[in-house]
Design a protein that fits this description.
By secondary structure, the chain is of the alpha+beta class. It has seven helices and 13 strands. It folds into three domains: 87 residues, Ubiquitin-like (UB roll); 107 residues, Alpha-Beta Plaits, CATH 3.30.70; 63 residues, ADC-like domains (N-terminal domain of TfIIb, Single Sheet). The chain is globular, with a radius of gyration of 23 Å.
Length: 294
């Protein structure tokens, strides 16, 4: 006879199978591409090697579509739409290089450069600045601003590792979203209105998160700089070698930037299985024994 007094074990939960996402076919610049439904146009274009310029978009952050640099023509809209926010749909026809798109990108760059200092030769971000790259590709015209540019704080120390040049900021808010959504420490915000809007910390609250250095990597221009690396070497002189961070047992994948046998910085190298595209500030500074303690 079975022992009815023995407590019965609950049944083992059965793994739920995730149904595959439906696929859609669309045409981008006269080339057909098939992607998962819901994929934004920027990623769909990237799948076939078409690079759409952008500033505010990052695949690991929420979408704001605020920079307007990724405007494209789509057959389901009477006017250009932001590619980062528009989902791919069946039979959609997209143009990323038409005259309308080129003019939209040129106008966007002109607005961004109205109050931006055009002094690339002395900027710490020269050589790895998206504003510099896109200006050469999409605008390359002198400013039509007749009056003086609005001046903001040039060297604002936000925390132990990050220094902000507010005049160079284009308000893409990547840094703000990273601190809120990824680091889980909302230590940055957007303050002011209009042309006087600026990124800053909250009163008496420094940017002291152990992941604050990632905001420098996310910044597409020369607004946020690494206080440890700032003005120590030109980025275009450095050689990036894939390596592994020795700061802890996790072993984050990094780029080791060096020149003439000297290491200048660590940067995160994306590895989905280990650290994703991020790294902590302790690991970021763990290159120093390679330089100072030999």
């Amino acid at each position: 006879m079975p022992d009815d007094t023995k407590p019965r074990q609950p049944p083992e939960p059965q793994p739920r199978s995730v149904p595959p996402r439906p696929r859609v076919k669309l045409t981008i610049d006269d080339r057909e591409v098939e992607v998962d439904a819901g994929t934004n146009l920027l990623e769909a274009a990237r799948a076939i090697g078409v690079q759409i310029p952008h500033y505010c978009y990052h695949p690991r952050l929420s979408i704001t579509a605020s920079c307007r640099m990724c405007l494209v023509e789509a057959s389901n809209s009477p006017k250009p739409v932001p590619a980062c926010q528009m989902p791919a749909t069946e039979c959609l026809v997209v143009q990323t290089r038409s005259a309308i798109v080129k003019e939209a990108q040129r106008a966007t760059l002109e607005f961004l450069l109205l109050n931006h200092p055009v002094d690339c030769a002395v900027c710490d971000q020269a050589g790895e600045c998206k504003l510099q790259d896109y200006y050469q590709e999409h605008d390359a015209q002198p400013s039509r601003l007749a009056g003086p540019k609005i001046q903001k704080e040039k060297r604002r120390v936000l925390g132990p590792l990050v220094t902000l040049d507010q005049e160079r900021c284009i308000l893409c808010t990547r840094c703000v979203r990273f601190m809120r959504e990824v680091a889980g420490e909302p230590q940055l915000g957007v303050f002011g209105r209009g042309s006087h809007e600026a990124i800053d910390t909250f009163p008496d609250k420094p940017l002291d998160s152990n992941y604050a250095g990632n905001t420098v990597d996310l910044c597409p221009v020369g607004a946020l700089t690494n206080s440890d690396f700032r003005f120590t070497a030109r980025a275009f002189f450095l050689t990036a070698t894939p390596s592994v961070c020795t700061g802890c047992a996790r072993g984050c994948s990094v780029w080791l930037d060096h020149f003439n046998g000297e290491t200048y910085r660590y940067r995160p190298r994306e590895n989905v299985a280990v650290n994703g595209p991020w790294m902590c500030d302790v690991g970021r500074l763990s290159y120093k024994p390679l330089v100072h303690d030999r």
